[in-house]
Design goal:
It contains 10 helices and no strands. The radius of gyration is 26 Å and the shape is extended. Among the domains are: 95 residues, NADH-ubiquinone/plastoquinone oxidoreductase chain 6, subunit NuoJ (Four Helix Bundle (Hemerythrin (Met), subunit A)); 32 residues, no CATH class. The chain has 198 residues and is mostly helical.
Length: 198
């Protein structure tokens, strides 16, 4: 993963960066499977390597595949990233060791989920019971966030070069004006004349 992250920062070809980000997500999904977090691995593979890669490739098809080279290095952004990374690493020092049976997560509600989820919820799979029932609102919120993000990206990449949506009224008027003969008045100007007269 470290090598993939290094080349993500170094490369200037955005197509290669998109492919590497998908590979990074797949490697992360494999690590989640190794840590027995299959539900998180499934989400990472579907969203990180699947939907995100498709949306970024669609964006590249409408823009360019080369990153813009800046003359001055973004020092402030680099300092901010290093400070945030340092705080996150510092926060991991208080975490219990992986697999520690005395970790707080193993002393809270995990035992209740294991012992009573079958009777309280029904599905034999404990992870399904947690995601669909005990944390149902949380799962609904995550789904809404992903759906909203996908709609936002589709709206942005669906805009034409003129800054309007392809199916909007302004876009239809521009297409009509292109098909109209040069001596005929344009639809946009006639609409402005009608508004001025009213």
């Amino acid at each position: 993963m470290a090598g993939t992250a290094y080349w993500l920062v170094k490369l200037r070809n955005l197509f290669a960066v998109v492919m590497l980000s998908g590979i990074y997500s797949l490697i992360a999904a494999v690590l989640y499977v190794v840590m027995d977090a299959v539900d998180v691995a499934f989400t990472e593979a579907a969203v990180g390597a699947g939907i995100s890669t498709v949306l970024m490739l669609g964006t590249l098809a409408l823009t360019t595949d080369q990153e813009k080279v800046h003359k001055k290095p973004p020092v402030l952004a680099l300092v901010l990233v290093l400070a945030t990374g340092g705080v996150l690493v510092y926060g991991t020092f208080d975490m219990p060791r992986y697999g520690d049976i005395n970790a707080p997560i193993h002393q809270h509600v995990a035992n209740r989920y294991i012992e009573k989820s079958g009777a309280e919820v029904g599905p034999p799979n404990i992870v399904t019971s947690i995601l669909a029932s005990y944390r149902g609102y949380d799962t609904l919120g995550e789904t809404a966030v992903v759906f909203t993000a996908a709609i936002g990206v589709l709206v942005i990449i669906g805009r034409s070069k003129g800054g309007v949506m392809p199916g909007s009224t302004a876009a239809r008027r521009r297409r009509k004006d292109k098909d109209r003969a040069p001596d005929q008045p344009s639809t946009a100007s006639s609409d402005l004349d009608e508004e001025a007269s009213s």
